[in-house]
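Weekly puzzle thread! Below is a chain. First person to post its structure in token form gets bragging rights.
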Amino acid sequence: MAGVFGVIVSGRTPVEVVPVSDTEFTCEIVNADSINHVVVFLTGAQPFPDGIGGSVYIRWPTADGGNWHYLGFICNQKPSVIFKVAQLHKSDADHSGVFEMQMQVYSSGSAQIGINAERLSVIEGRQAAEGTQASQQSTLVEFAEKMIRNLINHTESFSVRLPSPSGGSQERIPTSGEHSVIHETMRRFVDGKAAAHPKQHGKRQKRQKKRGRMHTGCCTKFDTHVLIIGNGPAGIALSAFLSGMHPFYDAKHPHQNPTVHEKLLANQEFSLIDQDLSWSTNLTELSQSGRPLSVLYDMLVRPGADTGSDAPGCLQWELDRAREIPHMVIGETKIGGSWNEYDPEMLTVSFSDWMDMPGFTMEQWLGGRPLVKRLPSCAIATYLKKYVEKLRIRKKFHQFFVVTTIRKIDDVWITEGIRSTDGRQFVIRSKTVVVASGKTSPRKLELPNEEHCASNIVYDVRTLKERLDATKKTVVDEENYSRPSTSASAPVIVVGDGVSSVDCVRHCLERDIPVVHVIRRNLRELRNVMLSRLSPIHYSEYTDIYRMMIGRSTHKHYQRILNANVTAISKIHVEITTPNETIEMPYSTVAVCIGRESHFSQVFDSPPSFLDYRSQQDDTLFAVGAFAGDHFVRFLVGGCLRVAQHITGTYCVNNNVVGKLSLCA
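Winning reply:
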């Protein structure tokens, strides 16, 4: 259960809680004499099993180890608790031998938090140490003092460090955000809600307001400025930009293109997010792609990517939390999006450095340059998770959120859906929505009988491997306990001519399973597909199969049918049609690898269209990543940079922040 618990002391970074046994956890709080309250909470990584909770203890270690104060408990129904501990070390501890494991005694002046997972029936009968709950005193002086302090802290959180015309930088505070805070506070005060239940209501509202969500019955409500839908590479990269990760041109490593160097050098003190980069559309080598900023970003991060050189990047990165724009990221899967669903052994088509996220590269994560150019997909999925943790933006990500509807009321986007883990509904209100969900649904054959034969059809190599492995285990000759030759069995039909289809063909041939490869293109068209441009040095597994596809090599278990389509399917036969004939062929499995698509547009009242990543119907709706047509990570990050420019400029103007170079002029 590592990573299940978190501990926070006001004004400090979260404290790491480490396991000391299967049910016991501990952490150290340094300079404990200065703390008043401790927050203990469930991180959400893993819930307690049914009927189990966590008893929370604290002790100030002495020479003999010291006894424990019992503070209270947390559970799935009460995932976070604030404990008042200011006076506990002055009284006698009343619990000895609580933990079976011998715990480390920490240094003088430190306190130790212990969490013991046990049955709720045992926990609920235990008496907490006297004075652990927050004081109920609510005098006018205390109320006024806290209100003023909170207002000052909240106001300072909006401060933005911007370049000064005279050089250096200055901190500025937008004013528009404060008006809504003041009006909301006055409304609560007049309504008397805070006064009616000063303890329960006040603590709950503060916790939920800080987290940006409010619970109403079985529905969880969130408010944020920007909602990013999709937690794959595109959603992660955009979240990094909106969290203050900004790229600056590094004049010490100039780009070889003189125009690019001249333009960026003139404004090197400004982040690329704050610059007007429209000049990039006039450069021939950039404008031909249709996405000049995506290509420009790739050129600056990887100037030698297409020539094979190891030229250093032309950007340096700064993480400025003062530039953060409030946002949240939701996704239907774990952080990493579709990378969690791919075959973990599959090597990426992109080289490892093409997968770099802003400001923290794959090489930095690995601790050095990888020995191989291409990494397995499981490594990419892990890197994306570690990237989010490295930038400390994990709290902005919400997993297993399935969006059902998106609509706009006045100037507010209302996004609704359900959380797939528990079925709880959610409603998110935001000023801006960014669709970064990618294309996650496999394209189907669209045949009348396809659903009826679903048990014999797969749509990716991972599922194909699982199906063939399961089938192989069940086919055994009972007389001599040997497996029959698979070459005499019905073949696997692979439909498609892209990378995924080649993965399926390769997997079958490596296991001596016969394959019939149904390819829609003719030979002339096949010579111009992406596979034809892959280097045999780095992509030998693909180029070997491609040579079979175009007829330059053969394999005893491989048969190709060009210019063909599957036009009918039953439980045991497929019908393959070419311009000259129709073939009825038995099969064991059909692997359909004809691309992926997105059905996300269906959640809108009317499907939007996008130009330069922005909706042509609404200036506050954007799309990035595969949904916007950027299918490779090396290019989609530049698209996220473009959207970050749009959002930052609008946020700057609407919040009365002045002084930026061009976007807020």
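Puzzle host: Confirmed. Bonus trivia for everyone else. The chain is about 25% helix and 25% strand.
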